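Much of the work behind modern protein science is quiet bookkeeping, done one molecule at a time. The fold becomes a row of whole numbers, each drawn from a learned catalogue of backbone shapes. The protein below has been through that process, and both of its lines are reproduced in full.
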Amino acid sequence: MNPTPSTTGRATRGRRSVNRLPFWVYALLGVMVFVSVFPLYWMFVVSTTDSATAFSLPPRVVPGGNFLRLAGLVFDIVPFVQALLNSLIIATVIGVGQAGLCALAGFAFAKLSFPGRNTLFLIVVLTMTVPAQLAVIPQYLIMSKLGWVDTLQAVIVPGLVTAFGIFWMRQHISSTIDDELMHAARVDGATTWQIFWRIAFPLVRPAALVLGLFGFVNAWNDFLWPFIVLKSPERYTVQIAIKALQNSRDIDLGLAMSGSFLATLPLLVLFVFVGRRLVQGIMEGAFKG
């Protein structure tokens, strides 16, 4: 039966009414975008002028012409290229490690039966309530015993697995993987590792990607632990390199903002390429169940 013109018109108007949002929604979104983007833009403005711009009222909104000069000073004062490379290595390994190891641990807690499973998972969840700063001293003592102080692995290894990552993947696997699917795979002769790698992990790959991106960003922006455990300038991460730009007596905000903007650029490039995948992974996790 062909649709009548009146039916087609009503359907078209219905679609238009669904797609049309009130003006205040767009206004609110515009304000939120402005509030989110302006600090980054203002950081760029300060990085193109001098420290006085940071304290001017009203704030200056037009960039100056000193960015290339200040950026050159950043690379001259500290080994910034090596710091970028160190941060890239650390953040990449931590991101990939969290995506894989937390997924493996989450699969074990969600789908495997072993003594004390619920108790161990409760302990993992409770560790999220403990401030990370409390672990700095015992963690440093462990790294000192291992001889890892002033090495990149001292930053990488403690960040490979997180309690939040295990919780995230456990909840996602519980709501995504059916027990009947695992039983059918076992009947076909699949081992536990094969079930995880060939069945479970491909189904939860979007959630693992989101977790890996969060781990990458957190590792890139981390300052406290690398500042404590890394001593040599050639081991610096970008955050420590930015700190090294600041004189103990005088802080050149233009120079510091230039380093901060250069350190932010890789994250902006990352989100340009994987932003859509990140949103899709978060939305799949939100509406799964």
In short: The chain has 14 helices and no strands.
